[in-house]
Amino acid sequence: MVNPSEVAQFTSPASSVTPAPIALRLRHLTRRFGDFVAVNNLNLEVRRGSFLGFLGPNGAGKSTTIKMVTGLLAPSQGQIEILDRDLEAEPIAVKRLIGVVPEDLNLFDRLTGAEYLTFVGRMHELERHVIAERTAELLHVMELEEKPKALIIEYSHGMRKKISLAAALIHNPQVLFLDEPFEGVDAVAARVIKNLLERMRERGVTIFLTSHILEIVERLCTDIAIINHGRLIVSGPLDELRAQAGTNLEDYFVNLVGGERPLADTLSWIG
Fold first, then answer.
1. Parent domain of 238
2. Does residue 86 lie in a domain region?
3. What is this structure's pTM?
4. How far apart are CA 64 and CA 75, in angstroms?
5. Which of 27, 117, 216, 237 is the most exposed place for a label (fewest CB within 10 A)?
6. How big, in percent rounded to 5, are the helix, strand and coil portions of the chain?
7. How many domains does the chain have?
């Protein structure tokens, strides 16, 4: 088991290629709730154009981190920079550059999908014809155009995830934050979301993803960072990490965050 206070950094061999600039930089990021420290002195850099899987067990501090870096929760201390802008000093400017799919989908349930995307587009001060064009395209890509008059309250969980992602994309963000976008989503909706995210990364969008589905992380992500008990344990390129660890991501993750309890220790009647 790795000591959480010891952070391993996986770095590539020396290369003549100039590293990509930093999209997200966290310095000593900390969040306390009374005496409980949810995120503890987190230092992390995410390069532009990368797809980061931000992993950890339940209660590790993943959602708290995303809420801080997207301006939904103030940190107790530390600094957040997105695309060379300080979030605390320039919150509006930063939020124009990012898209967010939060864990809790607080949508306007009494609007249709098109009305909701129009509202979000207006909030980002997009021109009306741009909003109309992008709304039509997003509803088509997300397979939400078949029932144009349906209210969001009538949507399934998967449909709500897709309309939330559409809203996060309508203003063409440069950095995208996704908190468990595949949770409770069926295979068809998951395929739509995965294909869209791959296209976004090909266009140079930086993506920051939390997910408990490690198979999806292995397929989509270029880099990973793992936290436990609010502390960063490891970060680096996924391919390099797997090569050095000599195992798959699931086995590595389970061993890193505390190991696997034998079934007999949990259920005495099962041998």
1. 19-97+176-186+211-271
2. yes
3. 0.87
4. 9
5. 27
6. 35, 25, 40
7. 1
